[in-house]
Amino acid sequence: MSFIQQHIELIYIVILSIFLGIEVISRVPAVLHTPLMSGANAIHGVVIIGAIIVMGQAEADNYIALILGFLSVILGTLNVVGGFVVTDRMLEMFKSKK
Amino acid sequence: MSFSVLSIIYLLGSVTFIIGLKMLSHPATARKGNLIAAGGMTLAILGTIFLYEHNGERLHNYGWIFTGLIIGGIIGVLAAKKVKMTAMPEMVSLFNGTGGACAALISAIEFRHLSENVVTTGELLTILLGLMIGAVSFAGSMIAWGKLNGRIKDFAFKGQHIVNQVVLAAMVICAVWLLWSNDGLQVHHHILFYIVLVLALLYGVLFVMPIGGADMPVVISLLNSFTGVAAACGGFLYNNQVMLTGGILVGSAGTILTILMCKAMNRSLKNVLIGSFGGAKAGVAKEQGLYKAISLSDAAVVLAYAQKVMIVPGYGLAVAQAQHACHELEKQLEEKGVSVLYAIHPVAGRMPGHMNVLLAEADVSYDKLLEMEQANAALPTTDVVLVLGANDVVNPAAKNDPDSPIYGMPILEVETAKMVIVNKRSMKPGYAGIENDLFFQPKTSMLFGDAKQVLQQLITEIKQV
């Protein structure tokens, strides 16, 4: 119960975001499904922020936390950078030639 | 002070994600939308590195952070730039897996870290959720990646659904037990935590293993939304709004996208996840009828003297990397005064919309690509339909045969055109593992061979007509 109380704002965000996500996506034409999936894939790379926080708080002598954190930063960056670049490459080709 | 600046940065980041997703939904603005979201992400990352404070303490270990960012960035750019357009689905799956792994790792580190202090049940719950969802997404994505590039074969055993349920139930029970007995973490809690991790990884593998290659895009899309939810768990843990909005947006958008994809194939999500097409294979052993083959030169003449030609590209075209040859053929025919259009089924290629990307890569103009409804309206006035490596999406059984496993799937009604030429490598059935009556109709002629070679030969022949 106290958890809900502490996070009531976040819970509001969650609920509104769910509806927003549905609203935004349901108008997408089928032709854009692949780039969209890829773009959404890049956006959930926002998890990198958690990785940075974990990494940045690890004590200098806690090697396990350092190594795991380092790994998670690399993986998260891969997700973000790779995701956006791949999406851009796909969309670059959608320019209509007239 | 720096806290409020960071809050504004996170707010901006969240808004760019929403705008980005919105703009991605229209071809003309899609690219800009992607760039805007990327810009917001960069801002959020830099803001976190330099402005984040916890109990008045800034982050340290900058060396590690930047080295990680640079290594990940370089590998990410190289992988994304080098990947072939046909290999796009496995690339998306791979990147999705790294996101899931990242979320699971964060949970693992935070668990170790927090276990030194008192942990509230709420914190423990978000950590466990992040761990489970992230790990399932990671393991599942890796299997999906392996399946798409052919390294992992379909694998199913009797009673697998039951085993899957048992593994899932065991994972949930361990997690609940861990939450329940949370009164200062002890050794057995650590053991429980790692058991949950192993079970989650195992479930990810078992969950994707029996699903057929054709359904993989649906699975990737679903795992995509899983990773979104895993990222959102991190948002709860750190009270971080941008992680929360980003994660949940992807979670809900990914779920809707998954449902849209299922609809395009006229199957329910449950059907995709539980019953694979493979099960129907055994029942369908219909005799092959008579089909007629057409020679290259005959096909060239037919195409060159037609007025309207409709090309139906499919998975086979993507595999043969023949999209450039296809565009060549289109140009060659247009020089002869033939109007050429493309009919794109929503699930043509290996992912919804994949075919559009492949053809766009080959410089085919966007307005030549007809969606299924437009194409079906134009087909009755079309002289020749050229089916290139497509099969199930033009199978009339989806309309006529209620016993067929693909019955009800919307298809391109190519049999309404005056003539159909089907290019295939052999008479082997397509993904769904069922015969296609279209090939045995009197209107249809088969043109056997690899799509790329056939197209190149057709181009030379047409030049001579």
In terms of topology, how is this protein built?
The complex is a heterodimer of chains A (98) and B (465).
Chain A: H1 2-6, H2 8-25, H3 33-43, H4 48-57, H5 63-92
Chain B: H1 2-23, H2 30-51, E1 53-54, E2 57-58, H3 62-82, H4 88-114, H5 121-148, H6 160-180, H7 187-208, H8 216-238, H9 241-264, H10 269-274, H11 278-281, H12 296-304, E3 308-313, H13 315-319, H14 323-335, E4 339-344, H15 354-361, E5 369-371, H16 372-378, E6 384-388, H17 397-400, E7 419-424, E8 444-448, H18 451-464
Parallel strand pairs in B: 3-4, 3-6, 4-5, 6-7, 7-8
Antiparallel strand pairs in B: 1-2
Helix pairs in contact in B: 1-2, 1-9, 4-5, 4-8, 5-6, 5-7, 5-8, 6-7, 8-9, 12-18, 14-18
Structure write-up:
The complex is a heterodimer of chains A (98) and B (465). Chain A is an all-alpha fold. Chain A has helices spanning 2-6, 8-25, 33-43, 48-57, 63-92. Chain B has a six-stranded parallel β-sheet with strand order 5-4-3-6-7-8. In chain B, strands 1-2 form a two-stranded antiparallel ribbon. In chain B, helix 15 links the parallel strand 4 (339-344) and strand 5. In chain B, helix 6 (160-180) runs antiparallel to helix 7 (187-208). The longest helix of chain B has 28 residues, at 121-148. The chains are: A mainly alpha (98), B alpha/beta (465). At the A-B interface, helix 1, helix 2, helix 3, helix 4 and helix 5 of A face helix 1, helix 2, strand 2, helix 3 and helix 4 of B.
Question: What's the mean pLDDT score of chain B?
Answer: 86
Q: Percent of residues of chain A in beta strands?
A: under 5%
Specify Rg of chain B, calculated over alpha carbons: 26 Å
Order of helices and strands of chain B: HHEEHHHHHHHHHHEHHEHEHEHEEH
Query: Whole-number radius of gyration of chain A?
Result: 18 Å
Number of E strands of chain B: 8
Task: Please report the distance between the alpha carbons of the first and last residues of chain B.
Answer: 76 Å
Helix content of chain A: over 70%
SSE pattern of chain A:
HHHHH
Number of domains of chain B: 3
**Alpha-beta content class of chain B:** alpha/beta
Shape call of chain B:
elongated
Number of helices of chain B: 18
The biggest sheet of chain B amounts to: 6 strands, parallel
